[in-house]
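Re: that chain you flagged

S.,

Sorry for the slow reply, it's been a week of failed gels. I finally had a moment to sit down with the sequence you sent. For the record, here it is as I used it:
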Amino acid sequence: MFQPLREFKIGRPQIFAGLMLLGFLAQCLWVSGGRKFSQLEYQYIASGFPQQPGLEYRVTSPLTGFVAALPFKLARHAGWLNQTRGVPRLWVARLPFAVFGLWLGAALWWVSRRLFDNEGGYVALALYCSSPAMAMIASNTGPEIILAWSSFGLIYTSIGVAHTLYAPPRKWLPRMVLLGLSIGCCLATALWSFTLVLLAFAFMLYLAPGRRRAAAGVLLGSSAIGIAVLALILGVTGSPWLATKGLVAPHPSLELLRSLAFPFADGYTPLGSYLFVAFFIVALTTYGSWDRARYFGNTAPLLSAYASVLLFALVPGAYVWNATLGLSFVFVFVGGVAADLLETSGRRLAAIILTAGLLLRVVLGLVALSRWIRYPV
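Prediction finished late last night. Pasting the structure tokens below so you have them in one place:
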């Protein structure tokens, strides 16, 4: 076993997870290099440059604009621009978003493995790496992958902070800083994500009933760090303050009801959607009918998935693909329930079904991505 750092070991599980993540990255680069820029992507890229007088953008996401414009700025300074089109290659221009996708996958693996051991981590990561929807947002210029990454970090860092509150105060600071960075990145991507901060605070209060005053103090400190990060990003990008009515005013509509079916968005093609929904229904049925599966490690991602999707469905002006914000949490939920099933006498049957389903999901996912490259929507 290789151990470059005292608290981080690289063994067979880490190597296997790394290979899965490389497969996900390969999908993202393949898709990134095969699709032309959409008009919305052009707007995100343009928003990362100094705004021209009289020019207004339909999109408002400072961090997305900064990330989208970064390859163009670096290419300009390094002389890497394509002389015929004046832009970097498509996969280079979208590479930062693929990096966020890789980062989110690594975080999902880390959280799932700590909660459910190797088997739960493998299932959650396999669902993520074979997800057409996650590959799409990680190979597209837009806020979804950044928001999915930062909100996932926000929720699970807040849970980690809550557990740390019972330790000496000197151990709070590192996680407070991480929580503050997550808050800042969420707010700089979409201002409405302050609602996810409230959800994170609710988890902190639940997990630290005897330390609620300390939890409130930690959240205030982390929020101050988050606001400082937001101000820094706004200053660097030159973006105006984001408190426009369309981004903070809830607008209930039928979209709320449609959002309840967000797991169907993961397959892109009907057969792929039904396959993942079948996984989800089995996990949900098991969770509801088996006491052993109903614990906080499984409940938190399920609640977070629906809360994040439904909250963002209230603000259509954010121009975010809401469904993808809940998928990473659902993958953790399914991984947790799968880990419970793999510890029963039906382990062999569960392993066969999971393996066959995941292999079929990989094939269907590649088919869906090839269609999306040819016929983008």
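What I noticed first: Residues 95-129 form the longest helix (35 residues).

Talk soon,
D.
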